[in-house]
Amino acid sequence: MPRPVWSGAVSFGLVTIPIKVMPATEDHSISFRQIHIADGGRIRYRKICEIEDRVLDFSELTRACVML
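Predicted structure:
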């Protein structure tokens, strides 16, 4: 049985609830997709170049520091 990462208590007035935080053993992540209500089509986020006005591939992207 795993050992707790943190043990403590939460109290609300005269009521105290003991709490133990255990390490996670599985990934329970949920991903949500945005869909179009009218036809149920998936909404995607495309990276479009402002200068060339075309959709870019992931390999063409990088990060840069912009001084304003």
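Summary: The longest strand covers residues 6-12.
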